[in-house]
Amino acid sequence: MLAPMSSHISRLSLLSLCVWVPTSAMAHAGGEAHSFVAGVLHPLGGLDHLVAMLAVGLLAGHYGGAMRWWLPTSFVAAMAVGTTFGAGEGAQTFTEIGIACSLLAFGLALLSKPSLRATALIVSTAGFALVHGHAHGAEMNGDVSTLPFIFGLMLTTAILHVVGVVLTTARVLAAARPALLKWSGSAITFGGVVLLGMLLQG
């Protein structure tokens, strides 16, 4: 049962790599961002944001215990703060580099044993969330009604975290968990390296 599941996960990982670069390149094109619905949909429009949010959920499940709550909570809260401060500022190169670094860090953490101290992991996760939030805020059109957008953004982010946690903690998926962590961690790390390389060369 494990071998077919591992093979299926590996094929999905390879497929994700095929669409990673062009999708990530379009992730921050900007656009209207002034409603709850826009906030709900916004994280789904950029593969780098979506994968990072799933990665936090996977990482929370990987560490287990109280981290299942602390990591997602710290990310959602810090992201909301970052979105507020980044509202209307326009795209910044450092945010894109920070997002790439977050993917690299989350991917490597998924590939390693749960060895980081809880405080260090929570603080680093919140730090990366601030960068993601700033990028979201930079894509807003400056509309004064930003609160509904942020609430929508927080909702989708929380749901993606829950999906990641479920994938790494559900009993029915226990046999596939090692393969899931291996292939998802590898794909996320590779994506972070590619994105970082593109940004540094550009």
Automatic annotation (TrEMBL):
Protein keywords: Membrane, Signal, Transmembrane, Transmembrane helix
Pfam families named in the record: HupE_UreJ
InterPro entries: HupE_UreJ
Membrane-spanning residues: 39-60, 69-87, 93-111, 118-135, 147-168, 180-200
Keyword Repeat among UniProt keywords: no
Keyword Nucleotidyltransferase found: no
UniProt signal peptide: 1-27
The protein's name: HupE/UreJ family protein
Organism: Steroidobacter flavus
